[in-house]
Amino acid sequence: MNDANQTWVEQIFLVPPSLRDNTADADRLLAALRNRLETDTIIAEIGLLRDLPDRLRQWGYQARCILFSDGNVFYLVDVTDPKGQPPCAGLAVDLGTTRVVTRLINLETGAVLAETSFENPQTAIGDDILTRIHYADRPGGLDHLRDLIIDGLNRAIGELCHQAGIGTTDIYLLAVSGNTTMTHLFLKLPPRWIIREPYIPAVNTPGIVKAAELGIDANPRARVFFFPSVGSYFGGDLISGILFGKLHRSDATSLLVDVGTNAEVVLGNREWLIACAGAAGPALEGGVAKIGAKAGPGVIDTIAINAATGDITFDTIEHSAPKAICGSALIDLVAHLFAGGILDIRGKLVPEKAPGRIETDDGIMAYVVVPAGQSATGQALVFSQPDIDNIIRSKAAMYTILETLTASVGLALSDIDTFCVAGTFGSLINPRSAITIGMLPDLPIERFRVLGNSSLEGAALLLSSRHPVTEIAAIRNRITYLELNVNQEFMNRFSAAKFLPHTDTTLFPSVTVPAFASSLPDKMRKMVSFEAAASIC
Amino acid sequence: MNDANQTWVEQIFLVPPSLRDNTADADRLLAALRNRLETDTIIAEIGLLRDLPDRLRQWGYQARCILFSDGNVFYLVDVTDPKGQPPCAGLAVDLGTTRVVTRLINLETGAVLAETSFENPQTAIGDDILTRIHYADRPGGLDHLRDLIIDGLNRAIGELCHQAGIGTTDIYLLAVSGNTTMTHLFLKLPPRWIIREPYIPAVNTPGIVKAAELGIDANPRARVFFFPSVGSYFGGDLISGILFGKLHRSDATSLLVDVGTNAEVVLGNREWLIACAGAAGPALEGGVAKIGAKAGPGVIDTIAINAATGDITFDTIEHSAPKAICGSALIDLVAHLFAGGILDIRGKLVPEKAPGRIETDDGIMAYVVVPAGQSATGQALVFSQPDIDNIIRSKAAMYTILETLTASVGLALSDIDTFCVAGTFGSLINPRSAITIGMLPDLPIERFRVLGNSSLEGAALLLSSRHPVTEIAAIRNRITYLELNVNQEFMNRFSAAKFLPHTDTTLFPSVTVPAFASSLPDKMRKMVSFEAAASIC
């Protein structure tokens, strides 16, 4: 068999038993499946085999078999009526720290049946991973965190099935891709040691688990595949992303970065893969800046400054009165401020370049984005120097991580053939702005590829076809994980990257640096370098 | 590793994690086990992994791992304190239709901790397999049969653990060897199709099942291995017997026969194995003869007739007054009656050879074994001609099966190097008597080997060492099953075997045939042949 699309659902036609061939029903079916799947190992639960004799006779020794595998062992998940009507469904789950995105698909055709997303209910315990890990250590804490996410998922499953017009028992397979901690909490595995030196997860490769054991509302025989993690800080969501981005299959060298609080980066091709993760700071997502906010009504998502007049134009989500600015628009804003000379190459506001737009409160300068009279809150939306500094540090950390990983294999950032940006936040960023501020390398724009929710897409891919699962283990095993050491070399790179776009402007040939700011006295460079060393720790 | 005795319990010493080697706890343990067991596939349940991080740290990254395998996949059953006190126990179960024999062993040393047996509680539903299979078809019938055997086993487990001074949770592994139907009823698999053409079991190879799923009182993580069957009439108990008898490892050609209601026979050596099963009739076990009974107080188990005087000497179990005769003593009795000329070569009573011992009631002759005055019941124990005929038919069927199987591979019975007799009943038979009546072939007595309860022994062997499990699949796959066709050739053999010891006395050189009976008119031979053809159907 060499079908282009071999799915997890196999229609099997058996030779009925006879006096000359009296192999047992289960053994007959499993032998046919072993032959079809070219494997020695298919595990079938005894509970499934109890009904088999009557079912096979009723169906004339034909059956629709639903299989699953962790890349090593195959499981016979269920055997259903070969002429059965409702589709066999699979559920792809992107298990995010903040948001969980789910997609219901038809396992036989790969068609999307429904999609929904919800806020990870564990955010009620804490927005960040660390708070949840500490909470898990309290009596009953881990159980509670697990219940929150499973209940949330079950609600989403109810909604998806309603949308698709199927029953929850029609869901046979699930694929979950999340970071290492989220996967631990989902599986009720203690996350305690993830954050304690030497940072050891309980499990890297959970493999396949029964949905019923986890309390998931699906077919009682349904099974869940978990994308494996490489380590505490490089989770299954990234493996899923690599699978979707096809880095491991490409001759050309690609880089995949999930831009967020953590910058998780993979570089490689079909020969090798190297990865690292580092804190880029929540500033990039707009989570820290006073006027920053996640997308929602009244949040500015598009912004531009007219270089000639200094006038600001913007748009808000649902066109409501502005109340905040989303992370990607903040990056646009920094790029425009810099292009207009309102920020110098150190990222400091230059008041004389924006007359009337810059105010000082208690000695802190701030750029007025929306005057009080025009905002939804009645207060001016201002972009203060500390907020700007935060973003600069974050973008510098991001660039430094990219540069360090690339340099570790003897390449320059300019050698990257394809630069994949993953994650919801990543898909909102304007690469041109990100290049202008020196957050992403100055590559021709056509080399950038926005992957979207690659974690979800990878999970959906796994459910749509039998092939990816063997690739997953290969991807995981091929990845070399680079532990980022904040040593002198890293600090030097970081200090250089704290300029707009960079101390070494030859790295950013496409960015026009305003003339006045292009020559800084050496003394000032040193000062900046010192400040960076202090602030990263 | 090439230890002489590799058990299912492995002491593992891990290199503790460090910043340079931050593999997850579970992956670290599984990698070490994969290396130790030389396998790619070890399945560990998520429930087991939840406690692992804390346990490994507490035990200094040492652990005692209990493993199991079906010959294909390994399961990590549990991880326990490396310095833990109570032994890890395993339970071998010979799941007989009539009697269940259990043995508790220490998995690390193979030492026997306790042993007990009990009547299969399903006999309350029916002594024979057929009744139980029909009962299983009634609503709730299969559940009831399953409950009976599981409850019975759980009582035995309680007793064994009490004897051994361990807890039921110290039992981690079980090995069950039973015939195909008993295995089905134990697993609540429908046995319906076993007795309906073309005689298809639900499952031949149940493999490994969780004890908790079956309601067995053992460690919650305990797993049960089921010896695979070859077909409806050749069960796991025989595979277990072959394993114990080592037929599959021998250069010499051996025959293994489980003498009972069914004669199950395997012939072969390290190159090939051929098997068949056929009804030899319950008469051999004493189940049908009016005076026949299973062993018990007052049952005659030793009997002899003084050839000169015609006097009978016997002994009973517990030396009580005689009330019945056990199956093996009936075989002795037939042998003595024949040797004394009281039975002719057709197996017919010769009244003039036992004056005063033979009475006729309603035209039916019977030999008085114990006069009324000496029996426990106050009634004479008589061995009637129909009872004798029954035994003759059964022994003829047994011999015919042995002869047919041997001839099918071009061998004579005299070519058999080792003749293994298995089963409790088999171990009671006096081979000399069995040869005299022509039930077993006339081989030198030193070629006979009494295996005892080979089904139990094979199960115990599997629990004591990791090696046998791979042999089991090989044994099963190597067996050619010969379907016995009751054709003309079979009937001719059967007719010839209905004589004492056989029509062809050259096959039994060691048996002295009383002179008077050695020449039967041809007419009589034909008559006998016709009768046989009618009675076997």
Automatic annotation (TrEMBL), chains A, B:
Transmembrane segments: none
Pfam family, one: RACo_linker
RACo-like middle region domain residues: 90-249
All residue ranges annotated as the RACo C-terminal domain in the record: 253-511
All copies of domain RACo linker region, residue ranges: 13-78
Protein name: Iron-sulfur cluster binding protein
Organism field: Desulfosudis oleivorans (strain DSM 6200 / JCM 39069 / Hxd3)
Classification lineage: Bacteria, Pseudomonadati, Thermodesulfobacteriota, Desulfobacteria, Desulfobacterales
